[in-house]
Amino acid sequence: MMILDCFDQNKTWVLKKKMDFVVGIEFGFKEMPVGGAALDLMGVPLPEETLLAAKQSDAVLLGAIGGYKWDKNQKHFKPETGLLQLREGLKVFANLRPACVLPQLVDASTLKKEVAEGVDLMVVRELSGGIYFGKPRGFGTNENGDEIGFNTEVYATYEIDRIARVAFETARKRGRKLCSVDKANVLEASMLWRQRVMAISSEYPDIELSHMYVDNAAMQLVRNPKQFDTIITNNIFGDILSDEASMITGSIGMLPSASLGEAGPGLFEPIHGSAPDIAGQDKANPLATVLSAAMLLKYGLGEEKASQRIETAVLDTLNRGFRTGDIYSEGNKLVGCKDMGEEVLKSI
Amino acid sequence: MMILDCFDQNKTWVLKKKMDFVVGIEFGFKEMPVGGAALDLMGVPLPEETLLAAKQSDAVLLGAIGGYKWDKNQKHFKPETGLLQLREGLKVFANLRPACVLPQLVDASTLKKEVAEGVDLMVVRELSGGIYFGKPRGFGTNENGDEIGFNTEVYATYEIDRIARVAFETARKRGRKLCSVDKANVLEASMLWRQRVMAISSEYPDIELSHMYVDNAAMQLVRNPKQFDTIITNNIFGDILSDEASMITGSIGMLPSASLGEAGPGLFEPIHGSAPDIAGQDKANPLATVLSAAMLLKYGLGEEKASQRIETAVLDTLNRGFRTGDIYSEGNKLVGCKDMGEEVLKSI
Ligand SMILES: CC(C)[C@H](C(=O)O)[C@@H](O)C(=O)O
Ligand SMILES: CC(C)[C@H](C(=O)O)[C@@H](O)C(=O)O
């Protein structure tokens, strides 16, 4: 229940098994600031205390990050920088982003019904490397004295290998089809990416591997999203394609994500942003955060059953006709963020 | 007419005003190999003769590039490398990619009718900089001895300024709304991009400028493409978003593009690829190439009237019900590539 409150508040929720949570497991929660909230409170987007508490927890549930107020801040004082530092600090390199069209919500998609219905894909995005973190980066001048801004897209074999294994394992639990997205016709970083994904595929002979250029993937997601089962791609392409895929479902307010590392706590967050235009108006859809908590139970704590109970409760709430504004369609009951949360609780 | 033949053949068409072309202007054509055709004929993807002829021409019309046969080639022997070398050699830095939903073809879109109809946007993509050409690039080893692949995303102020001016001018001839797409919440190259686009906007007080992060733009194109008039973005984001936008129209086989430099000949090509799966089967839609010739007349040779005649002929052909397979819908006449070309000629 507390989880619902953290929605769009730029806060990190740190869970410990202590308190009696809705699903009958003992949890301990600790709420710590990150992003905008941390900037306001302590002047940095990721306070040391927050990172330490996160590292010592079993799993981290994150609200959304950012807002108009801090949009013009310098890089080191941007809310987004706090999120990137948290991902880096927790060494979470595998970002799982499901995009699923629920039968109840197929009308919410802007795609034609026959194109949208049945879409059920998972984007496995590399989260701790590539152009987001590559060095050198910064500002400078070129040989003509012109100012430049630059970043480095770089991948090492071990980074590709480990995310590839996560993706192949993920595909194995799903439809056993993995599509690797890159720009290997232009970029060296992508050529190495493709080479390594192909090399790792020999460990997974039961998984059907294909490759697609990123521009084509952006098209194919619109043309026929059902062709995809599991997608693996780098950090920046994953940022773009997972958002595109989530919008194809028409219900980005419904979509959770999990970020996992080799060991240590995972980071669980809704895919949507902080939606500053509707913040504080009790309008937001809390289900992405609720479903992120479900992912947390499953991937973070290994509590599959409890996870399923939450997912089932969400479906049940939808079946009972409750909708927030973003997924509303005629004939259903329009509710605000809090009431939607209450209804999910009733369903549990 | 000759233009239609070059479709999906990996060839460059070089035009000179010599021959009597359909629109009553004297043209001279010269056909030169590039990409796969050049690799087969001379072992390199852009022969010197081709680049020289292109440079000496008034405008260059390009077929599509690439095919299965050369997919596994090393970088210097990829068809795509020939295209990049041609863009570089001609110093074309501004790539104009319209995405328009024609009333006749609204059903071809996978988007719902009310979302697709009326879409009319233009992506202005920076074409000669960024991660496509940035140095350093290549392969190496990191401090742990691990193999790496790397590329540099870099923009200099003059590169941003000149593409920004093209975009503002383009917006001025359209709906006077320009949306600049970047990832300024993470990348330094994007921060400079945003800064310079804002600086140049002071020269265009009549144009409404907005900014959007690339992940959000990928979503918004699906959610509500009609919100966009003109989009300006960097090379790689432009590659992805313009393909996404073109697929939203449902008729990528219809979409032309123009690549322009400071001076010298422009390069005109369909947006679609070489579609190796249907090559040589007389199935492809020739209209993107025909409309690229129309853009060539308008932007390359300043022959607006002739350009309009071709565009009108294409619309007329569609109104008469002729459709290739990719845009076919019930009640229309299915034709192959050649017949479609003949019908356009009849309409002129
Ligand atoms: C807020 C931003 C830094 C972040 C990213 O680009 O990774 C967001 O877009 C996401 O996808 O989680
Ligand atoms: C073929 C490839 C190199 C090219 C690009 O990435 O620019 C193509 O995708 C395009 O958009 O024209």
Question: What is the structure about, briefly put?
Answer:
By secondary structure, chain A is an alpha/beta fold. The first copy, chain A, is 38% helix and 24% strand. The first copy, chain A, folds into 2 domains: 1-90 and 264-348, Isopropylmalate Dehydrogenase (3-Layer(aba) Sandwich), CATH 3.40.718.10; 111-252, Isopropylmalate Dehydrogenase (3-Layer(aba) Sandwich), CATH 3.40.718.10.
Describe the structure.
With 348 residues, chain A is of the alpha/beta class. Chain A has two domains: 1-90 and 264-348, Isopropylmalate Dehydrogenase; 111-252, 3-Layer(aba) Sandwich (Isopropylmalate Dehydrogenase). In chain A, 38% of the residues lie in helices and 24% in strands. Chain A contains twelve helices and 14 strands. Chain A has helices spanning 2-5, 35-42, 48-56, 79-89, 113-116, 157-173, 188-201, 214-223, 235-248, 287-300, 304-319, 337-347; strands at residues 11-20, 26-33, 59-62, 92-100, 120-126, 138-141, 147-156, 177-182, 208-213, 230-233, 256-261, 266-270, 322-323, 333-334. Chain A has a ten-stranded mixed beta sheet, with helices on both faces. Chain A has a two-stranded antiparallel ribbon with strand order 6-7. In chain A, a hairpin with a 4-residue loop joins strand 11 (256-261) and strand 12. In chain A, helix 6 packs across helix 7, helix 8 packs parallel to helix 9 and helix 10 packs antiparallel against helix 11 (304-319). The radius of gyration of chain A is 20 Å and the shape is globular. The N and C termini of chain A lie close together (11 Å). The model of chain A is unreliable at 1-11 and 15-20 (pLDDT under 50). At the A-B interface, strand 7, helix 7, helix 8 and helix 9 of A face strand 7, helix 7, helix 8 and helix 9 of B. Strand 7 (147-156) of chain A pairs antiparallel with strand 7 (147-156) of chain B, so a sheet runs across the interface. Bound molecules: 3-isopropylmalic acid (2 copies).
